[in-house]
Amino acid sequence: xxxxxxxxDAVAFYEGLAADNxxxxxxxxxxxxxxxxxxxxxxxxxxxADFGTFHVFRPYNDVRFAKGRPPYKEQIGAVGESEGGxxxxxxxxxxxxxxxxxxxxxxxxxxxxxxxxxxxxxxxxEVAALCTAMEKKGYSLSAMxxxxxxxxxxxxxxxxxxxxxxxxxxxxxSGRPRRGCTPxxxxxxxxxxxxxxxx
Length: 199
Fold this sequence. Notes:
Layout: H1 8-19, H2 23-47, E1 54-56, E2 75-81, E3 87-93, E4 96-103, H3 108-119, H4 121-136, E5 140-142, H5 161-164, E6 169-175, H6 188-192
Antiparallel strand pairs: 1-2, 2-3, 3-4, 4-6, 5-6
């Protein structure tokens, strides 16, 4: 099945779930989830095969050890990893679509090489310029974790200290539902270009 976008029914499904996150709501609307949400996500992932194999997260929260946590996730998400370890992520909810890629959490040897590159006058300047360009295009940069101070062996006043403190580097973009523009707010083209997986 070709991906034609997430429908207004998919947006409404998550709006309803946010208002009534219960087994009763879920069972009454599961057919919409299966076709308009999960079905659309699987179709999208089929068109993103160049980024590797994706895993779709379960729609249920683990409530055994989290008191007060709602039983159902209010978004559908998928993650994949391409050759070389870059992670790709896509999520859809009533708030819109999020897509991103990069090294969200680097292994120790990757982190060491990354920091050496950022520290280097020429390569570091190139990394900083790429980060600035991405932010100007509307991407947000993130990592799973970052240090509160300079890593060991690097000066606190390093010109690229903000990048050096990160334990990974990824970028993401997001798009909100555009009601009234089209029956299906997103297409595969919009996902892979405007709000989609950055290469």
